[in-house]
Amino acid sequence: MVAEFEIDRSTYDFRWVVTASDGLQIRRSTNEAYTLAVTGDNVESDVNPNLFTIDSVYPNPTSAALTVQVTKPRADLLSARLIDALGRSFDLQSPKWESAGTDSYGFDVSGMASGAYSLELKFGDSVYQKLVVIFR
């Protein structure tokens, strides 16, 4: 696990990025609380329940359909896209107003080429990413 932290002293915004070896989830956030405790090989995290979270992405790897389960702490705009290794963006969901709660979203990825993609979910002003592998 790699964690990077940055504080913008001019605005007092706190930003963090955590990359975990179990799926390479990357979270970027501003002004949101997150605590991380590392003890030996065990990693415990206490994510503020008021944060957006990607609960699961399955099946991963996939060949046709991708299901993403997320928890939304409040109503806000949610969009989804895949980004390939060359930086090309493929929209899965245009910005859409979503209510608070836990929901699952299904995406058809049958037309995508095989490869590793970054699934990017934008919720409000924050961006969340998860590695997705598509195969044929």
Q: What is the overall silhouette?
A: globular
State mean pLDDT (0 to 100 scale): 78
Q: What fold name goes in the CATH topology slot?
A: Immunoglobulin-like
Query: What is the rounded Rg?
Result: 15 Å
Helix content: under 10%
Task: Describe the main β-sheet briefly.
Answer: 7 strands, antiparallel
The first-level CATH class is given as Mainly Beta
> What's the count of strands?
12
Write the CATH architecture name.
Sandwich
How much of the sequence lies in strands comes to over 45%
What structural category do the secondary elements indicate?
mainly beta
Structural commentary:
This protein is mainly β. It has one domain (2-134): Macroglobulin (MG2) domain (Immunoglobulin-like), CATH 2.60.40. It has strands spanning 2-8, 13-19, 26-30, 34-39, 42-47, 53-58, 65-72, 76-83, 89-98, 101-108, 115-123, 126-134. The protein has a seven-stranded antiparallel β-sheet, with no helix packed on it. Strand 8 and strand 9 form a beta hairpin. Residues 29-45 have low confidence and may be disordered.
